[in-house]
Amino acid sequence: MPNVMKYDLNKRRYTLPHRLTDVIRLITVLSLDKFAFRKLDSIKVALRGDPESLHTWQDIAYAHPEFFRPNGTEDYIALLMRSYRPENHNNERDPLSIPETQKLIDVAISLHEKEIERMQRNSHRVPIIVAIITLLGVTLSAYITSVSNADVKQKIANLSIQIQKSTSKSGK
Question: Which class for 50: exposed (0-12), middle (13-18), buried (19 or more C-beta within 10 A)?
Answer without folding.
Answer: middle
